[in-house]
Design a protein that fits this description.
The protein is mainly beta and about 350 residues long. It folds into two domains: about 110 residues, no CATH class; about 220 residues, Porin (Beta Barrel). The protein is built from one helix and 23 strands. The strands form three sheets. Strands 11, 12, 13, 14, 15, 16, 17, 18, 19, 20, 21, 22 and 23 form a 13-stranded antiparallel beta sheet that branches. The two termini are about 55 Å apart. About 15% of the residues are buried.
């Protein structure tokens, strides 16, 4: 082979390698080349060198092919990794590394390259310092994280709130807020919307003379909507409440019902609103109940950096002696999402 032929062949192979791409063939006869990113919910996310990332309806696609193996999840629950070749209308051919091509009905494809379950959440913190006639310091930190699998969901959360102030006249310092909580919940889905849950919450509030409150529970939930821009679920079940108070010392235990809901609404790619409520009425004393609720807005400043403003209400119908029934606070914080 002479040098000129070798150079030409090398250039041809390099050009072929560069131009290799996935291809979608539409029922209209049009074609689109690029990369098949994923398929879910009857739609394909396709990255085209010409049009960029576009969303295609599977019902408009005649067939398609991929240059590299992709993860293919079928409606029967099976998951495999194949390179796909274009076939007759309504089908693709799976090309195993060793074996004969197998025709797959497009209608049988549930997902391509499905999202792997991973932890998502945020850490938000805030602080306030006042210097003048009164000196005061306040700080808060809040963590929330969740992991959504195909048939389950795990949620973890925790928070700490602290504030104190000192009078320049008396030089006395007093703590006005000192409480923290930890909670976790595990959901297992029986259908796409109906699930069972188990949850537990632990909290302390020194100012409310609450040494310990533990509330484990079980129940059922219903996921009414679960989209990127809107999430809403409701829950109902039972809980066991254990409370230990100080000054004066008192321990309470009772069975309670539990009703809760969560709403999240994305207004655009950067701003999201949320509202949560949990209500635990005692099944043994109709005058005893707990309510925890919040409402707020969260805005992304960058891909990871965020700001958040929310209002919280914690209501205890039977607090410790000489303590208020409700704690209401407004919180502004800056955080990091992951």
């Amino acid at each position: 082979m002479n040098p000129t032929t070798g150079i030409a062949l090398t250039a041809l192979l390099a050009f072929a390698a560069v131009t290799r791409a996935d291809e979608v063939i539409f029922k209209s006869g049009d074609r689109l080349t690029g990369t098949v990113k994923s398929v879910a919910g009857g739609k394909m996310l396709f990255d085209s060198a010409v049009a960029g990332k576009v969303t295609l309806k599977m019902e408009d696609i005649k067939t398609f092919s991929t240059e590299e193996p992709i993860e293919l999840a079928l409606a029967d629950g099976s998951v495999s990794e194949f390179r796909l070749a274009a076939s007759d209308e309504g089908f693709v051919d799976a090309l195993p590394a060793d074996g004969q091509p197998t025709a797959i009905d497009l209608a049988a494809i549930d997902k391509i390259n499905p999202d792997k379950p991973r932890w998502k959440g945020s850490v938000v913190a805030g602080a306030t310092l006042v210097r003048g006639n009164t000196k005061s310091d306040a700080a808060n930190v809040n963590l929330d994280a969740s992991r959504r699998g195909e048939t389950d969901r795990t949620t973890l959360a925790g928070g700490y709130f602290y504030a104190n102030q000192r009078s320049n006249t008396t030089r006395q310092r007093s703590t006005t807020t000192d409480n923290w909580f930890l909670k976790g919940k595990y959901d297992t889905f029986f259908t796409e919307q109906l699930y069972g849950y188990g949850n537990i919450k632990y909290e302390k509030d020194r100012i409310a003379n609450l040494d310990t409150r533990v509330a484990p529970g079980l129940g059922l939930g219903y996921q009414w909507v679960e989209r990127k821009d809107l999430t809403f679920f409701t829950e109902g079940g039972g809980a066991y409440v254990y409370e230990k108070y100080t000054d004066p010392a008192e321990t309470r235990t009772y069975m309670a019902a539990r009703f809760a809901y969560q709403l999240e609404k994305a207004f655009n790619d950067s701003v999201k609103g949320f509202h949560n409520l949990e209500y635990l009425p005692s099944l043994e004393d109709t005058d005893a109940f707990l309510v925890n609720t919040d409402v707020g807005l969260r805005a992304l400043l960058t891909e990871r950096l965020l700001v958040e403003f929310k209002s919280q209400l914690a209501f205890n119908s039977k607090p410790a002696e000489d303590r208020e029934k409700k704690d209401f606070r407004h919180i502004f914080g800056v955080g990091w999402t992951f």
